Amino acid sequence: MRMAATMTNNAFVREVTDSDVEDALRFGGKASGLAKMARAGIPIPPAFVIGVQGFHQFRANGGRIGEQLLVQVHNAIRGLEAQSGRLFGDKDRPLLISIRSGAPVSMPGMMDTVLNLGLTSASALTLAGGPGGSDFALDTWLRFWRMFADIVLGIDPAELMKAVKTPEATARKDLDQASFDALERTILAHIEREGEPVSADPTHQLHKTIEAVFRSWDSARAKAYRKHHGISDDLGTAVTIQTMVFGNADENSGSGVAFTRNPNDGRRALYGEYLIGRQGEDLVSGTHTPIDLSDSKALDPALREAFDKHSKTLEALYCDAVDIEFTVEAGSLYFLQVRPAKRTAAAAIKIAEDLVEEGAISRDAALARITPDQVRKVSRPAFDDEDLARANLVTQGLGSSPGHACGAAVLDADRAAERALAGDNVILLRPTTSPQDIRGMIAANGIITARGGALSHAAVVSRALDRPCIVGCDAIDVDLNNKTFTIAGKTYPEGEQISMDGSTGKVFAGVLKLKGAGAGLPALKHLLGWADEKSSASVWVSPKSSEELVESVNAGVRTGNVVSITDLIIAHGTITKFVELTAAIGRADAPASVANTIRSIVHDACSPAVAGASESPVWLRLPRVSSDRARRLIDNWEELPAGFFLPLGSSSYMQAILDGISAAADRKEVGVLIGGVSSVAEFAAFQQKAKRVGLSAGMVINNVMALDNILHFVDSGAPIWIDVADIVRTVCGFPIEVQQSLDVLDQYAKEALIPVNPFRTLPVYVSNLLAAATSAAERGMSVGVEGGGMPHEMLAKLHQMGFRRFSVPVGRRDELRFVLGRSDKE
Amino acid sequence: MTALSENEFLVLNGAHLKKMATAKELARAVGVGAAEAEAVLNAAADKGQLMVAEGKYLLLPDGTNAVHEFYKTAYGALRSNQSVLAWYERFETINDQFIKQVSEWQSADGDDRIQARLIKTVERLTKNIQELTPLIPRYQAYVDRFGASVALVDQGEKDYVCKPTLDSVHNVWFEFHEDILSVIGRPRDT
Question: Which residues of chain A make contact with B100, given a CB cutoff of 8 A?
Fold first, then answer.
């Protein structure tokens, strides 16, 4: 009775099943997590925690553990003994424990984990006689010594293992008390030689370990970290002590990793691997064949049921998909670690959408859970449906990282990297991969391995790199010496063109056409719909070719297109001629045939774009002879007559282009945008010219004067696009080259030569210049931001200022829609 | 060829280990003032020991020879010192660990658990380097640089693990490795 009173009134130590332990501030993040799991009925190995009060007493006691705390720890150990039926320090049925630090906030420099504490030479030998056998016993015991030496005593574990090599070999061979005792003596002697006092007594080791956790609170790294983050030095750390369980104890044991949803595509189905009779590390090394948890018949029905039940509980607890490290010891299931699951970009989006549907999280929360990077990753190319239907399937493995890719099959990482550097599309095809192959994996469009499972190196690394990957294609026989590979009796040379689908695991012969961005993935469409609703922004695209325009229209873009005529001419392959004629028409003695040819080049380049746009509005940007691009394209640019550089400086040139567009428009609604104008009269004159050939007129503002006149332009009802990057650049006086390499300006800002990179943080002067434009935009006038030269973070700021219409290259559309949906106006 | 002074050696050795660096970077790495480093570098450039390209200094063969010569004179005695050679044998083991951990860290997209192990190895090395500082006092600069880079990694600046253009732990480690090899007279072919 007296003991119970101590535990409640003045307790440093609590069992993790105690509901108080959920308070992370007093008992640390790890114990708090365990307490929540225990309360929810998740099976965890028995554990207790020394709260931060214990740390404070340790400090007050001059850096030593006080008598009172020791008594409580040993009482709690008695509790673990009662629950496990084992005894701490016992020779026959030893209780083994793990000790972990547990600060309220996890921080670097804190003591890590010590596992397997509780063995002696005598009990290790008993363990060797058990179902796990001698290797299990020695591995478990030596693992403790390595961790204890490393973490508690600061002695190099590799050196310790080297020093005990001979007696270790003898112990493995002889398996008797004398050889185990000799091994223990050698360990102790090495540690003492290194100047650390040490004992073979588990109680002494436990005290030392607890002290080490407390001391690590004041390590230089932890102090520096706290100082940087403004965390109080007085917070202190807890210590979590938990019973060890062993997956390699017998044939009714095992360990594995489970995901509550498929981490590749996000489907609601248990996924993962389980290895019978093994510890978790064996999974990663891939040395044993695991049981596939997604196969509902593969697992013992009772275990299966337990997983289904606990998965639901944990998802409700975390409001997210989780991954679980688990161990089964002699038929009992234990969850060791649970955390939000790592997942591919596609899975993240699918899971976020599903969680909204399930009512677990709000739409805003779903948007907050996805990163722009993930949206970018899924908005990438996919196989053309028709090509896919006709494709010749060669073999199928385990799809382990999604995505479509095609290229030359290359059997060596270095050669793959070289070919990719030379501009080839490459698929890295290997028996397995290892860290040495990383360069080739980065360079390849996709990775296929003949062996390995869902947790092999190739699979894990590909997911991290976001490369399509197929593993376990055991029908492929790779011959590295002859640089060939054989599938179903047919041998192919290295360099054979193949295509792969990293979700289905299918490998196809030849090259399948890849279709442009953003197609497919219904979950992304929903998510972007929510984003649009939230941002009320309209993101237009600026396709670089008619094909790109048609593709993006077919992918469901209902906003509009801002297309540079110069881009269309380049894509059409007639830019050289066009540039020649541009230079020619600028001269006084230009023959009439020049204008006619210009008109037909413009017509031919624009008409497929106009025809393919169907209902989607098309605005064509006129070529600007004064632009930086024109300066680079036109030979002897500086010899052109000066008047030609003005927006309306050459009426024959302007007329030829407008005529070409008008012919291409073929009575359809098409608009033309003029850049470089500064005055109201100038724009009015242009509107007249456009109207005469049946075209609507709009403008791109790229100078401060025009920005100052914006309200007059707005009054004319014409659509206006502001090239904010051009404004910033000219206000700051930077050449175009600087704008095109933002990191140069980042570095400049880092050296404090300019206060900020103005392409990332708008200078106050420029935001003042934009004030009239933003108020017009907020009034719903047709004012947009041409965002091609701006990073998304800046476009999000312009959105916050009040702009609602943006235009970006096709490949950036989805990401921008998403970013705007996440940015908060308030 | 006149022998290098202690300070000349410090700066030129910095250039030797870094291969290509600005005066500012060199000064910071070896712990001398920027003006002093610049003076040493310019004098060496006049002697044809090094060249400047885009504000970065590169040793020429004469400079490399002078640096090697200094190592030989200053550390000749250590090359037969059993405790130093034993220290180096231990370093090789930890060096293998470190290289393996860096490639794991890269493969795992900077996974936090692998990063914690990697930093632990760095801490192990800095502890070991302190056994050498009584013999080679300038090695304290490596301890300080490792400490500074680890603190940045702890603050979440993952570039300080192994980005080649920063004073990342990987870069500092690499320079230290070249340095200790030169001390014991086994310069690597680079």
Answer: 435
Q: How confident is the model at residue A455 (pLDDT cuts 50, 70, 90)?
A: low
**B150–A158 C-beta distance less than 8 A:** no
B119: contact with A, CB 8 A cutoff = yes
Fold of B6-72: Arc Repressor Mutant, subunit A (1.10.10)
Residue A328 burial (CB count, 10 A) = 23
Under an 8 A CB cutoff, do B107 and A461 touch?
A: yes
pLDDT score, position A737: 76
CA distance A510 to A505: 16
Chain A contact for B165 (CB, 8 A cutoff): no
Indicate if the pLDDT at residue B188 is higher than 80: no
Beta-carbon separation of B150 and A221 below 8 A: yes
Query: What pLDDT sits at residue A289?
Result: 67
- B151–A150: do the CB atoms touch at under 8 Å? no
Nearest to B116 among A112, A228, A464 (CB): A112
Chain B contact present for A109, CB below 8 A? yes
> pLDDT-derived band of residue A287, with 50, 70 and 90 as boundaries?
low
Q: What is the mean pLDDT of chain A?
A: 88
pLDDT 10s digits, B74-102: 999 999 999 999 999 889 888 988 988 88
d(CA B178, CA A626): 54
Q: Which domains are delineated in chain A? A: 54-243 (3.30.1490.20), 254-343 (3.30.470.20), 383-514 (3.50.30.10), 536-822 (3.20.20.60)
pTM of the model: 0.69
Complex-level ipTM beyond the 0.90 threshold: no
